[in-house]
Structure formats: structure tokens, C-alpha cells
Amino acid sequence: MGLLALGTPLEWPEAKKVASKVRSWGIEQLLAIWGNAKGKERAALLWGDEIEYLVVCYDEQNRKVRLSLRQADILAALANDEKLLQEGGGVPDVQRGPVKEAETTAPVFHPEFGRFMLEATPGKPWGIGFKDLLDVEPNMKWRRTIAREHMEKTEYPITLTTFPRLGSPDCIVPSYPASGPKLRSQYVPDEIANPHIRFPTLAANIRWRRGRKVEINVPVFRDEKTQWPFKDPTVNYDLHQWPEDDDVRNGAAKDNHIYMDAMAFGMGSCCLQITFQAKNIQEGRTMYDQLSPLGPILLALTAATPIYKGFLADTDVRWNQISRAVDDRTPEELGEKPLENDRWRLPKSRYASNSTYISQDPRLRREYLDPDLVVDEDIKKRLVEGGMDDLLATHFAHLFIRDPIVVFAEDLETLDLSKADHFENLQSTNWQHMRFKPPPPNSDMGWRVEFRPMEIQITDFENAAFSIFIVLITRAILSFNLNFYLPIQRVTENMETAHKRDALSTEKFWFRKNPFGSHSHSTGTSTPAEGSRPPTPFGPVEDEYEQMTINEVINGQTSADSGKDCFPGLIPLVESYLDSMNVDVETRCELARYLDLIRKRADGTYWTAAKWIRHFVQSHPKYEKDSVVGEEITFDLVKAAEQITREEEGWAWVGDVGAEKVRTLRQGWRGRTGVFA
Amino acid sequence: MSGGPSVIRRHTFEKSNTELTSSLRANFTAHQSSPPTPTTNGNTTAPKPKPPFKSWTTQQDNTLWIPTHTPFPLSEPRESYDITVKLFYLPNVPADTRCVQTREAINLVLKELGTSSIDLLIVSFPGISFDADDEESDLDDTPSAPDSLAEADCDADGAPEDIDTIVTTWHTLEKLHEEGLVSNLGISEFGCSRLEKFLPRTKVKPSVDQINVRDCCVVPKPLILYAKQQQIQLLTHNDCTNVLPRGTLRDILGSGEKGVGVLAGENEDGERLRGEVQPQWVVKYTAVVKDRGVVESKGYFAVAELRE
What we know:
The complex is a heterodimer. By secondary structure, chain A is an alpha+beta fold. Chain A has a single domain (1-9, 43-222, 234-328, 403-430, 441-499, 570-677), classed as Creatine Kinase, Chain A, domain 2 (2-Layer Sandwich), CATH 3.30.590.50. Chain B is α/β, with parallel strands linked by helices. In chain B, 24% of the residues lie in helices and 22% in strands. Chain B has helices at residues 16-32, 98-113, 163-178, 192-198, 221-229, 246-253; strands at residues 2-3, 58-60, 63-65, 81-89, 118-124, 182-188, 208-211, 233-236, 276-289, 294-307. In chain B, the strands form two sheets. In chain B, strands 1-10-9-4-5-6-7-8 form an eight-stranded mixed sheet, sandwiched between helices. Chains A and B meet through helix 16, helix 20 and helix 21 of A and helix 1, helix 5, strand 8, strand 9 and strand 10 of B. Chain B: One of its GO terms (biological process) is glutathione biosynthetic process. Chain B: Keywords: Glutathione biosynthesis, Oxidoreductase.
């Protein structure tokens, strides 16, 4: 997240007045980029991963763990570490060392929304060389080590998606009172957010536009002794400091739900995001479309978020909570009031699963598109006039139905077509599960695609495994011309399904049955299109997909009926891709470790972090079967997570007893192949 | 005959013989029928009469191309690619014809890809399949997991090729290397002992030894060490040595339910061909865009003789 832009942020009523201007300037900037970059060809695949950490601070004496708000100090320490700078690392927003061409470049660190968060990325992008893939895990471990070295003795970077007790009393250090002017939250102080003016403004203007605080209600997990109906006992109905304190008196907190009221509850979550640079715009559009249906599958597979504000939730992932935490829709847009002042009803928050397909691909049937997609027709018209094709123009005209939230007065003086600030203002506050990213102006970067749904994993081994898996899947998609299209509304449904507790082993997801082209002469994207043969007639769309378990999607379907289309499975597709490449045994062995994690996570042998955390809480002696995750449980849980990352030897979650077993197995494995260890 | 660049196997862990045969079938079907049948896996409801083979094949001198062949040249400059070719010598072919066969195979691939050289040529000799069990394991190693064993399930046809034949054939490859047609040579499924016998008799050493192990983490240490010492890269693969058994080929070309109707059935009149098919060699080619790790072109050619 780039933070250099500074200026005078407009309060919402002022920002609202200039929203149209920002949008239309953004569109002009987009057209300038489009004009310059639509023919851009970049030979190499480059990709990058982002790891986000929570910085926790232990109070051993009182057996408490809190979030540390020292992000700024830690970043300052990282930016001023001479040795790190020499190795190419640092903090790009402040200073960093030179990127090394031939040798290793140290990782770099970035601020994030939460002042208790830290983001780390590799010092330079990864390539597709198999050696690069094997460098990912050590690099991630290196990042954690460096981060750790620039913290206090009592602090530690952990990769849990959310802090279990965020919003509970005494959960941050230093301590600040809640109910600040920006967030107006009952639970968290304004100081929880990065103090850079952009962030408090973002939070305040979302609230202001919405007309009340954001409202996050997560279903609570009902245990034996949970009071029922559950009325969140932490809600204070007697606050009278801000007008928004009325929210809870007007029913904002729902029965049987955990109630939260600030952006920090969502944007304070850690994710694992992967960005790819495509060869050209066409390949980027293909990747965007084909990765999209995989989003909900990977969300469920990485599930790691079973606790909110000190209660066990009945959901396993973070997604919808973030969605609600930045939901700036007005009552009219939400459909709660008749449309009078606003332009349209909006079915989704600006943080949501994506709603468009954008590839100019003959396999993209009209039936896959959302017939009710909300589009700003004037903007679309302008884009089409500017030379953009209908499909892509629709995509951006859909993103641009939103208002810009943070507008700096200084930026509205002249339109600078050599910049992308206004475009990015809208583009980067549309948080969908895929993002299609045009090259920044005046850079040698190509068109990029970001894969955003995955939850951060507790260990770097797991984070590396999922990163590498996604990279290999994109290579298989491009090599075999795979087709994962299904109606985009089904993807949205899948995203909901992925939230259910243990969706991985109990739910089914819509997925395409046959990922192959209808005839065999379809190879890499650059193979000339076959000429004269008429296209295969399409059957009904509903026949193309069905409900599958995650295990079937990942490991393949088996069917006694040989005539039936069986989905081959993502892992076998990746294996098939690897079989087509020259891979040495050592590398293949290392890659097999990662693929094995995905395979066994999908078939239930290994647990998701969500399942492990639930199990940890429910078997803790201090747990009283009432859904409450108290301070001591949190302390032990965070300690356990930390311990694992410290001792991590590439093992995966198989629960309490299993963990030890896996460790033994792994050691056995290492013993057998001493040469590779 | 060519199996177009169909890259995908429909089921998990199928070996290359299945990949080859399904690729051949798919390519034949695609050329036979217009419009193609709506499903790719051949569950057509009503059996349609097979189109006469002459409508979709081409006779050139005494060679029949099944189907009619149109090359698909690579789209980017040559240096963007890594081109690997694997040549499967088949059983029951006299060693002296290998020389001709090798050149034939390479030329076909070069023509297909529209290029003048390949980066790596790997040869597979009949009857040779690497078995982790055959290798001397290190003493402190007690392999107990049967899942780690290499499988020889599809390689049962014929005795292993003897070392003299291998060496004679290798000299042909060395010539291709000298001529600059092939930058690197490789062998397939050689264990330590075979390598030790083979290497001293070569001018150009193989730079690659491809081995097929289900669990690639269980390669015997002596082989790893020996290969490192000899600067031979050990690569993984998932191919069969006997990639095209005779019976399989008959089924594909025959006039039965699963055949494409090139060969006549018993007691059948008409223009379909009669005789014994004898597979000669199979070649697999793969062109990978180096910087992107994308397989742009992959396919097979197979050659068989028809004897009256």
C-alpha cells in the first residue's frame, strides 16, 4: 500500500460533491494507460506474494497477549537498518536498498491498515524457474526472522488472520480509550488504525457515507452452555457520545451474532495474496477469468478464522466480515429505503467476490455473465468511445459505480494524464477476490492479475505451499488451455458456502465438470487458432457444472460410469503439467511436499487452521463450553501458533495428537532422503 | 500418424501410453468427423458409419499419414523455447534400422515445430525400466513403504536391450549432436550399474537421465551421488517404456467399435487396409516457453509398418 501521497483529505460531504469529477478523471487516466499499454508484451512470468502479520506483545507475568500498536517504530527500525538496506531490503515507502540483479535481494516491509499489522513481500519478484519456487518458503521464513529482529523482546509477528480478542477490553498496547471521533466504535480506539491520514479518513468517510457505523454480525457458534438466544454481552446500549451510538439501540446488533462496529474488525485481517504479471493483456484477462472460480475453493481450503471478539464464530473465514467492515452503501443502495437520492441498488459491498468475466474468449458464454450487473452506462460509453472493447469497458464501468472515499483537495487542481491516482482511487477501493491491474504509467511493468481470497496460514510452509500451488495452477491453465468457466453468480454462491463451519468437509461447491476444450487442437494461448472447423455447438449451461466437494475439485472425481465427465482434479492437472516439464528429482521431491499438503488438506487428512483453532479452544481447560474465548485461552493459542512457526519443519495441521505424529513422519522422511535434506 | 498436441490425461496417474493413445484417438476423431461429435470421450449414442479413411488421411509415396498432417510451427522466436524430444525405440525392431528411424523422427519434429534444432533429445530403449529396488540401497536405509517403489506395470513387453545395441544406437545420436541438430542428449531409466557400463563407451555423455519413480523422494543415494559426479541431471518423467503395444495400435486403427476404420476387420471386403501392423517408434515433443513456464506445443508421432 503506497502512502507517499499526502494532502488535505476532504470530509465526506465535500468528497461526495467531487465524486463524479474524480471518476471521470480516473476514466481518462485509464484510457491513457489503455492507449499506451494495450499492446504491451512482457516475455517473462513474474509473480509476487504478500504475507501479512499481526504483531503481538506478550505479558508473561499476567499470561496475557495483546496487539502491539508499534507498527511505525518497527517500520522505522527496518528502514534504518544499514545491513538490511545493503542487502536490498527495507521499507519502500521510506527507504530500501538496491534490487540485486544476480544475487538474493532482502525482503521489504510495508505498513497496513491496522497499526498492529505488518506486510512483507520478496525484495524482487519471483520468476517461474523451479529454483525460484523453492526459494519461496526460505524467503518467507527470512521475512519473519527479519521482522522479529526489529521488534521488542516481548513482541512477535504471527500469521493468524485475526486477533482472537480484537475489540475486547485490554487487547492492545499501549492502551487507548474507545469511541474516538473517526471510528466512533464502542470497542476499538481510533488509534487502532494506521495514523496516516488516508486510513482514518477512509474509515470515517465510509461511516459517513453509509449514514451509520459499519455493522458486522457474525453468527456465534452455539456450544453446550452458550446462552441462547445469544445476545452479545459486550454490547453497550447506554453510550451517548456520538450519534452513531444509537445504532445498537436501533437494532444493529443481531441476536445469535457477535456484533462489531468498525473497519478495523475487517481490514485488520491478514491475507495471503498473489500477483501475477501476464505476458500481455489477453493472457491477463484469461488468468483473471479462469482463476475466479477457484477463489471460493481456495478460501475454504485456507479457512483460518473461527474467532471474533473473544467468541467462537459459526463461520470459518474472514471474507464477509471484511466485506461488511468497509460496506459504505446507503440505506437506499441497500434496498432498505426507496431510491430517491442514490443512483441504484447495489447487491454487493465494495469488498466482495467479483462479478465480471473479462476475457475475449470464445468459450465465455453470455450465460456466464451476471444479467443484473450494475454498470455506469455513461462511463462505459466513454470507455468504448475511447477504444476499449465492450467486455473490459463493462468491467471498469462496474467498478466505477462506487464513490471515491478518500479525496485529497490538492489532486483536483489539474488532471494529470501521466498519473493513475484518480483511477487507482476507485480501482484499489474495489476489493474483489480477483483484481485486474493495468500497468502503472511510465513503468516497465505489464498487465497483472491479483488472486486475493486466500487466508494467511499459520506456518510459512503452508503459505509457501499455497503460493506455489496457485502459480502452478496458472501454468497448467495456460499450458492446457483449461476452462473453469461457470456462471459468475454460482461463484458468488460458492463464496457464501465457503464461510460455513468446516465447509471443506461438509459442503459442496459449484464447479465445471469438464475443463478441457471440445477438440484436441487447443494448446498454449499462442497457438494459431484452428481455422475452418465450425465451433462445437454448446449444450445447456446447467449441464456444464455440478456440485462437488473440495476434495473432488482438488483431487479429482471418480466415477463408476465411464461415459460420464469426471473432473480430473486440480492437483492431477498440476502433476500433469509437471510431467510435461523437465524437472529434476530433487525439485520434484520438494514440490511434492507442497502439493501433498494441498492434497491432504482437501481430503481431510490435515486440518484447516480454523479446525485446529476450534479444537484448541474447545479442549482448553479454561474453556467453559459457552463460546467464550478468554484471555488465557488466547494467550495459550497465540503462544502455540508462535511456537509452531518457530519450530516449523514443514508440518501440517492434523490436530493435537496428529501434530506430533506428522513431525515424526517428517523426520522419518528426512532420514530416508538424507541427500536432499 | 500423429497425435496432436493433446496434453491432458483424463484420469489421475495415467502413464504416457494412455496419454498417447487417447491423444491419437482424439486427433483421429477430430479429423474424421465434421462437425465433431459433441462429447470428447466417445460416448456417441447411435453408432455412426465410419467415414472412409481416405477422406481424412493422405498417402505420400508409400507412407500413409493418419490423419492428414498440417504442421503447427511455433509462434515465438526459437530462443524463447526449450524443446525436448523423447524418442521411444520399440521392441522387435532390428538395431541397424534405428539409425534411420532416429533421423526420421527428429526431422518430423523439426518440421512440425518449424525449427532447425532441439535442445534435448532423450531416448528410451525397450525393456529398460528403472526400479529403485534393483539399485543397491545404502545400508542405513530400510525402505518399508511399498508405495515408494517404481512401477513396471506397463513395461512388461520384451527383454531389456543389451548394452551393445544401446551403444551402437548412441553413436547415431552423437552424430546428431555433432551436427548441431541436438544440443543435449539424454537417456531414460538407467540405474547405476547400467550407467557404469554405458558411460565409458560414449564420446558424448548424456546430460540427462530420466527416471520414473512414483515417489521422487526415494531415489537411491548411490545413483544420486554417481549422477552428480558424472554431471548427469536426474529428471522425473511419467512415461512407459513400451509406449505403444501392438495390440493397442490394432484397436485404434481397426474397424471395431473403438477403432477408426483404417484397418479392415476379418473377412471384410472394401478399401480398408489389410495386414499386420508393427509399431516402429514413437516420438514425443514438448516446446516450453522458457520465461513463462508455459507448454505451448506438445504432441506425439508414431510410426508403424504394415506387412501384408
